[in-house]
Amino acid sequence: MKNLLYKEFSLCMPLQVPLFLCFAFMIMIPSYPYLVAGFFICNAIFYSFMTAAMENDVTFSLLLPVSKAQIVRAKMLFVQIIQCVSLVLFSGVAVLNFFAHKNAGNNAGTTSSLTLIGAFLLLYCVFNLAFIPRYYKAPHKAGRIFLLSAVSVFVFIAIFEGFMIATEALHETVPFFAFIKTYIDTFPTTAAAWAYQGAFFAVCVLIYIAANEVCYKRAKAEFEMAEI
Amino acid sequence: MDLLEVKGLCKRYDGFLLDHVSFSLSPGYIMGFIGRNGAGKTTTIKSMLNLIKKDAGEVYINGLPFDANETECKLMTGFVTGAFDCYKKSTIKKLTAVTRRFYDSWDEEAYRGYLSRFLLDENKRISELSAGMRVKYALALALCHNAKLLILDEPTSGLDPVSRDDLLDIFRSVIADGEHSILFSTHIISDLEKCADYITYIKNGRLIGSSDVPSFCDGYRLVSGENEVLSEKLPHMIGYKSGAFGFTALIRSEDEKYFSDCRTAPADLESIMIYTEQEEK
To answer: Which residue is closest to A58 within chain B, CA to CA?
Structure first.
């Protein structure tokens, strides 16, 4: 597995991956739908798949002494590593945002918080499930598949950020949104906020793990049937 | 024990059926895998290596079932295609650095030797190599992890005659130790006449024959005669060509008795393929 991972990082990782990780700093922008930054990470991952498709990586990998299942597992691991690195960066920038903007909140969507980091995990689930199995069905159609996946990601962003905008607008009149505003959509400075957001983040982690396992199984099944 | 055994390989596409293809190859020999473009050679090879999902059949490498031992079988196998076009922007050095990690039996000294013999510059990108040099590089990779079985899919297509001859010499030297074997698909019959010990012939997805070259050729005869007798002998012919001075036809050796009034001659590989392919005409 480590050899396949070495191959992923040395042959399949284009310059766009480290470059697009810098979009984590979008979280410093005041009043911005921060989940959009997650789309750029998905975009970076797409570029790595696109590079692999253009360079006939699937054929190259299949000729190595590894199984199709191992090839898919290594690619998934590569994706997960990039996504985890992005989460670390997002977390760091979220803290910077808190100090730079003096906990001003976010009128345009989710406030930089642990909730936001959890939401990025959910966004990655949507992208991975929409993109990776379809890629292994037809690697040469990576561009078209990405367009469909991008639509799914933006629908998720619209729903999640829309909910947070509604929270911002209605928290003074609707008690439920007041709860969200006080404990979920805020930088956690109280024990209660940490607890609620920690629980939300833990659920997101579990969903991410489960979704990636489903994604791996679907991608593996597609790859087994693919005509290379 | 056979180094390669293919049993009842089937693959169906719309308008094409690879129909129960079976053959085997012992260590120390080169097998030519022949057939027209579209006959099913690449489909057979890809099915063997699990690059495409076969509908039925079994493949054994050195006695091991491929499906259940994919990694072990791939360690014993080197696949070289005439159109090696993976990671064209990468240098040979970078691609080799990745590849060698997968093989415990990687022989660096042999690799250096092949680079020198094939005049390959490690700092060149794959895209900068000619078709012949790409085949030689793929061959070097396969040979340096001590692959017992080399499967070559049209490696000489697109090569000039000198490069082709050079490559055929390399093939002979590879099998000289009696431990390695080569399955070599091509439609360039002259290459096989120079180096193949065995022939497997496939047509429209069906196996026409698989045996050593002399036995394979011995199964056929070329006959020639007057056009007047052509129609009565037609049912016993595999294929024929006729002109103002008479006809020439390919027949099975056992049908020679029907052509006692004609001239007969041994059939060569090229004639067998040419006349067999016009069977439907």
So the answer is: B86
A185 Cα to chain B: minimum distance (Å) = 46
The 10s digit of each residue's pLDDT in A82-125 is: 999 999 999 998 888 888 877 667 778 888 889 999 999 999 99
Q: What is the pTM of this model?
A: 0.81
- Between positions 48 and 87 of A, the ones with CB within 8 A of B are 55-57, 59-60, 62-68
ipTM of the complex: 0.77
**Contact across the interface for B90 and A11, Cβ inside 8 Å:** yes
Q: Which domain holds residue B195?
A: 4-212
For residues B132 and B118, give the distance between their C-alpha atoms in angstroms, rounded to a whole number.
10
B97–chain A Cβ distance below 8 A for any pair:
yes
CA distance B189 to B150: 19
Query: From the DSSP assignment, how many helices (H) and strands (E) are in chain A?
Result: 9, 0
Cβ atoms within 10 Å, residue A162: 12
Q: Which pairs from B235-241 meet CB under 8 Å and 24+ separation?
A: B238/B275, B238/B276, B238/B279, B239/B274, B239/B275, B239/B276, B239/B277, B239/B278, B239/B279, B239/B281, B240/B275, B240/B278, B241/B275, B241/B278
Domain count, chain A: 1
Residue range of the domain that includes A45: 2-225
Q: What is the CATH number of the domain that holds B141?
A: 3.40.50.300
Which of B86, B94, B97 lies nearest to residue A60, judging by beta carbons?
Answer: B86
Instruction: For A159-199, write each residue's pLDDT tens digit.
Output: 988 888 888 888 888 888 888 888 888 888 889 889 999 99
